[in-house]
Design a protein that fits this description.
- This protein has 229 residues and is an alpha/beta fold.
- 43% of the residues are buried.
């Protein structure tokens, strides 16, 4: 059995690094759109089960509406703790492969998710880095308790080191859609540069027509692409 877990803190206080360019309502709208895109990609990947780890009733409602099982957190203690909760539950249920991705990677595709899940085997966890190479945007473990996970930059290099220290041979997958997590204004510009028919792209594209959102216009998009090379 392959299970994927998506930790979601809450929608009310999402994306604090976008405070300078988006209102609280817009940040909440962005978080909802990204969660929809990620969960739809996971559904299309046809894994055995998808969980959303959260304590936010709004997130729970979205998950249930999309046929996703919520795992309730007693309190919000961060991404690492949420993933550990899901790992423990997966191990308890005898899951064969445990997959985790964040809820802010709206460009992720079903094909990328299937590739990540299939890359993991006993003794060989699979990791997908963020575009910066510092963060970890995807993990697949077989079995779920193969190693502990600790998120927050530079988590990618740390995860590789941890895997090797456990006698594991990590596999690295560069997955462009999964690699783009949305945290900064530059990330929003990069999202528009990618194109794609996602709910998040349509939302940000609508914002880009606002005269006050110059950071989303073509010149800014080009600059954002250059910075990612």
């Amino acid at each position: 059995m392959i299970v994927a877990a998506v930790p979601i803190k809450d929608l009310m206080h999402a994306k604090q690094r976008l405070v300078s360019v988006l209102t609280p309502a817009e940040r909440g709208e962005l978080a909802r759109a990204m969660l929809h895109d990620v969960l739809q990609a996971l559904a299309a990947a046809e894994l055995d089960r998808v969980w959303v780890v959260t304590r936010d009733p709004a997130v729970t409602a979205i998950a249930r509406g999309l046929g996703v099982e919520p795992l309730a957190e007693a309190e919000n203690r961060g991404h690492t703790t949420a993933v550990a909760l899901a790992q423990a539950e997966a191990a308890r249920r005898g899951v064969g492969v445990f997959l985790t991705v964040p809820g802010d990677v709206p460009c992720v595709t079903a094909a990328e998710l299937r590739l990540l899940a299939s890359a993991a085997s006993e003794g060989a966890p699979a990791f997908a880095p963020s575009r910066s190479g510092l963060g970890t945007n995807g993990v697949a473990l077989a079995p779920p308790a193969a190693m502990g996970l600790t998120f927050g930059e530079p988590s990618f290099s740390r995860h590789l080191e941890t895997a090797r220290s456990h006698g594991l041979i990590p596999r690295v997958l560069a997955l462009p859609g999964l690699g783009l997590d949305i945290d900064t204004p530059e990330d929003l510009a990069a999202l528009l540069a990618e194109g794609g028919a996602t709910e998040t792209e349509r939302l940000v594209s609508r914002w880009s027509s606002d005269p006050g959102r110059a950071f989303l216009r073509p010149r800014a998009i080009g600059s954002a692409q250059d910075s990612l090379r």
